[in-house]
Amino acid sequence: MPESSSSFSAESYFATQPPPPGLEHDIEGVKEFVRRQQEKGRNIVLVTSGGTTVPLELNVAYGQLRPSVRFLDNFSAGTRGATSAEYFLKAGYAVLFMHRQFSLQPFSRHYSHSTNPFLDFLEIEPGVEERSSFTASGAGSKGSQICVTLDKRETLLEVLTVYKAVHAAGTLHTLTFVTVNDYLWLLRAVSQELSVMKRKAMYYLAAAVSDFFLPRQKMAKHKIQSGKGSLHIEMDQVPKILKPMVDNWTGKDGFVVSFKLETDPALLIPKAETSLQRYGHQVVIGNDLNRRKFEVVFISWKDALPSSSIDTADSSSSFAESWLRIDPYDHNKEIEEDIVAELVKRHEMWIAGGTTSIKP
Ligand code: PAZ
């Protein structure tokens, strides 16, 4: 049971909140994926991506829990996760991509329906017999061909070639979550499966996870009715799962990278340092909501890095701070390319056993 009405430990959370229905099936798929990658000697990275929802009411129909009418959401389009996944694949990693249903995914993200709808760069070439009498209503009739607008061809070919190669190699496996409950159960089970990879596993936790939730026991059974004036909901705190993840689920060997998102720049470094101190993992990447596309800061243990890669290190502190910045006006450059390159370098050192894992 919860320790108090508003605080759950990870243990009490999993003892009282039910697992999502597809969990066992998902884990079978992960087991098989991990086995294949192990055989090939590849490193695996788990990338979490997108925001979690917190349903405010239950909707049980036909014996199954279905999406509720009202829920709280966490901000994230899934750009960081989907983009990073592509760069990890390029670096030779196998990727377990655990993302919010319908958020951006590697490769297809380039053709998002809102920013670059794919129908806009397809053209219809009428068939021979229709050329003289082509109308909108005749589109798609006998002999018509679809082709890609000339100026989009090169980029599409590049994306498609890598996408097909990744599929053929079987190095990308996708899992979805919607609610914070789905996310927590899936994260625990996937981390436990990945722990067999020992140091060759990286955990890249870019998803935006809710800090508050409504336990199943406190949720309204049906859609909350209006008519009683304002709505008051008291939410419980989501358990801090990084500690059990680092100490137990990953078997202490995994290279764990978490993200810290803030809107007050003054909080970014102190909160990232507190997180590292509290959970004892390897790296916290801090990002300011409004600058995240062109600036991030890596906070890690000072003794885990060569001094040349540290920007700021107060001699009395155990933490090292290094900033990554790109030109905000260069639309051909993605900061994830540099984030992933830096992490791959650090993960190699970690695998070679050249760094310390646990906080001093
Ligand atoms: O998905 P996106 O690119 O729009 O945003 C990425 C992000 C800001 C959600 C991610 O970089 C991040 O900081 N994730 C952790 C958020 C948190 O502190 O819960």
Automatic annotation (TrEMBL):
Classification via SUPFAM superfamilies: CoaB-like
Where are the annotated segments for Disordered?
1-23
Q: Where is the DNA/pantothenate metabolism flavoprotein C-terminal domain?
A: 140-292
Q: Where is the composition biased (Low complexity)?
A: 1-15
Similarity comment: Belongs to the PPC synthetase family.
Please give the PANTHER family that the UniProt record associates with this protein: CORNICHON-RELATED
Name of the protein in question:
DFP-domain-containing protein
Q: Name the source organism.
A: Lentinula lateritia
